[in-house]
Design goal:
Blueprint (H helix, E strand, L loop, with lengths): L1 H6 L3 H12 L3 H14 L7 E7 L5 H14 L4 E7 L12 H4 L1 H4 L4 E7 L11 H10 L4 E5 L16 E6 L12 H6 L2 E4 L7 H15 L13 E3 L8 H18 L1 H28 L1 H16 L4 H13 L8
Parallel strand pairs: 1-4, 1-5, 2-3, 2-4, 5-6, 6-7
């Protein structure tokens, strides 16, 4: 059985399980629900680390360097990397596994790229489920790499223990694209590429953000968000970076915030799953699907308000599709 193979730590079973939870067919969805129920008691023991940053900041490079360092310590590492999908074709390059070639060769590591498929929030459909499956397989550290960073790139913070935001040296005002809200969500800020000609710029950026974060509300009470420098090329700063991740995990555990944070995340996941289920029900029932199509056309033409259309569709859904809409 797949659940048993997964809990024994099988890499192939883990890959098959993630493919299952990413599926959209009704039979896949039902099997995925059953699988998650079976493995749920074996989850919750890993360190969950989310990493985000602007394109070009070096997310994949840093994750590979950190992952290799953790493997050397005897830890099992999983990387859930979300690649952007084309808004035109819907296709995705899924190049993270290629960019992390050295880490991908390590038996202690598992890398799974997934397409965003237009979802906002920086993560993909099934990322939460994939995270739990990695934990059930005995992974010690699960790293979630987001598409990029921006006002909508905050969902990763709602599914991990520690949210790390990467910053470019000497980015200056260009970082206005990273809104204040996401800085407040960050548990750890890391200035990347702190080597060679960028060393001085990285230290200046570190100082500037350290001063700025002193005026920002921390992501967690009693935790002052550290601002570090790091070079994935030379390895400088990697040990300190991981020490801060462990320190943050320790602070969460001591205060009881880890349990609170994960309980809140589970509740948010429930609400997301509920909305997804409602939409799936609308599209699966021919009468409801037709009602949704008609309501969409009415809203687009301006003959009906979105609020009225939504209320009528909701009433029809609660009535089992028997109520006439419009």
């Amino acid at each position: 059985m797949l659940a048993d193979e997964l809990k024994r730590g099988g890499r192939r079973a883990l890959a098959q399980a993630i493919t299952l939870v990413e599926g959209t067919r009704p039979d896949q969805i039902e099997l995925a629900r059953d699988l998650l129920e079976r493995v749920l008691p074996a989850t919750g023991n890993a360190i969950r680390l989310g990493i985000s940053g602007t394109p070009g900041v070096g997310k994949s490079t840093l994750i590979e360097a950190l992952g290799l360092r953790l493997c050397e310590r005897g830890l099992r590492v999983a990387v859930l990397a979300v690649d952007p999908s084309s808004p035109v074709s819907g296709g995705s390059v899924l190049g993270d596994k290629t960019r992390m070639e050295a880490l991908g060769r390590r038996p202690e590591a598992f890398i799974r790229p997934s397409p965003s498929r237009g979802t906002i929030g920086g993560v993909a459909n099934g990322t939460r489920e994939a995270l739990l499956l990695c934990e059930a397989a005995g992974v010690d550290v699960v790293i979630v790499e987001t598409v990029g960073v921006g006002q909508s790139e905050v969902d990763v913070a709602s599914m991990v223990d520690t949210f790390m935001l990467l910053l470019q040296p000497a980015a200056g005002d260009a970082l206005q694209g990273i809104k204040r809200g996401i800085l407040e969500l960050a548990d750890l800020l890391v200035v990347t590429k702190a080597d060679g000609e960028l060393s001085d710029a990285a230290r200046r950026t570190q100082k500037e953000y350290a001063q700025g974060m002193a005026l920002t509300r921390p992501a967690m009470e009693g935790w002052a968000t550290p601002v570090l420098t790091c070079s994935a090329l030379t390895g400088d700063g990697l040990d300190e970076l991981w020490a801060q991740v462990e320190a943050h995990r320790g602070a969460l555990t001591r205060t009881g915030d880890l349990d609170v944070r994960r309980a809140t995340q589970a509740e948010r996941w429930l609400r997301t799953a509920l909305m997804d289920g409602v939409e799936a029900r609308l599209r699966a029932d021919p009468r409801l699907a037709h009602a949704l199509q008609m309501a969409t056309e009415a809203v687009r033409s301006g003959t009906q308000s979105p609020m009225r259309a939504a209320a009528e569709i909701t009433d029809a859904l609660l009535a089992g599709g028997s109520k006439t809409v419009g």
